[in-house]
Amino acid sequence: MSARRSGALGGRAAVVGIGATDFGKDSGRSELALAAEAVRAALADAGLGPGDVDGMVTFTMDTSPEITVAQAAGIGELSFFSRVHYGGGAACATVLQAALAVASGLAEVVVCYRAFNERSGRRFGAGVARREPSAEGVALGWALPFGLLTPASWVAMAARRYLHVHGLTPEVFGHVAVTARRHAARNPAAYFHGRPITLADHAASRPIAEPLRLLDCCQETDGGQALVVTSLDRARALPHPPAVVVAAAQGAGRGQEQMTGFYRGEVARLPEAGVVARQLWGSSGLRPADIDAAILYDHFTPYVLMQLEEFGFCAPGGAGAFVAAGALPLNTHGGQLGEAYLHGMNGVAEAVRLLRGSSSNQVAGVRHVLVTAGTGVPTSGLILGADG
């Protein structure tokens, strides 16, 4: 049923505008100001104005409500507004919900946005803060008392298991880190602009949570990113070639938790990514060989390898060699490891640039780009394609 729903959506909406603030470590601005700046930039890029917008989608974790961002950006009446849960897992789902609204006629132009001061404000890597009692808190209660207090420590459990199961060394994670920083080095917007790294740099970076090192971990970033979604018919009259929503999906695995799913079977896999993969391939009729570039959510290097395997680009345990060989253009903006950590929204923007032909690391002849959202949590994914 889910595949049929996604298939009915495919080709009916497109991303037509992308806009971002500067990415930094101390913005000096409120998260609302960042959101409004990104929204205005995305609308200008789309050749649209605030008066054209009638829908908005963001993350439940975003501190700036849709109506407040609308006021700050000069947007008027809204006929659709929505939020998606599960942190970075929401990134592609914001576009999915926007496309659904457009395809169903609930809205004509929908803005998706995410803005935060993740470095100068609330730092996710600083550990779990005191929480009000909740079902999610109960799940974390099985891990926190044993010292698993940060996202890095949670992912380290899966990373250690992955290396053990496949008889590998941490160098396989280094291939992801090196690839991301190589692309970031050529991207003027990236934190690692002009600063490529080597496998030796990766191996020498300080330990964070064994087997993860500093260069296995994403940036902590202040900034905002926005996207504009409208119908494909309307998109064709706008300034840039549309990035068509070929397929979109959300997915949660059996026994899903939020980055602490250590009791649901094999720890060295990402079942939620498999749920998304089956829907995307099934509804689009495409296969891994049809994908010209991939923007995979990279808050930590091991989960990039596991995603490649879940999506069928290579056999289990083979993703490190796959990345090392450059078999698929991967995270051409530098990813969240090298460009900025914007909960995956900057990855969707990079997919749009690849289809427009304007990436800092442009790939020739791009027709289809796979984009994924946060892993280890309920997640989402997109296949964006060229028009025609």
Automatic annotation (TrEMBL):
Annotated Thiolase C-terminal domain residues: 276-377
Species annotation: Streptomyces cinnamoneus
InterPro entries: Thiolase, Thiolase-like, Thiolase_C_2
Name of the protein this chain belongs to: Lipid-transfer protein
Record-annotated membrane-spanning stretches: none
Superkingdom as given in the UniProt entry: Bacteria
Entry's Gene Ontology molecular function annotations: acyltransferase activity, transferring groups other than amino-acyl groups
SUPFAM superfamilies registered for this protein in UniProt: Thiolase-like
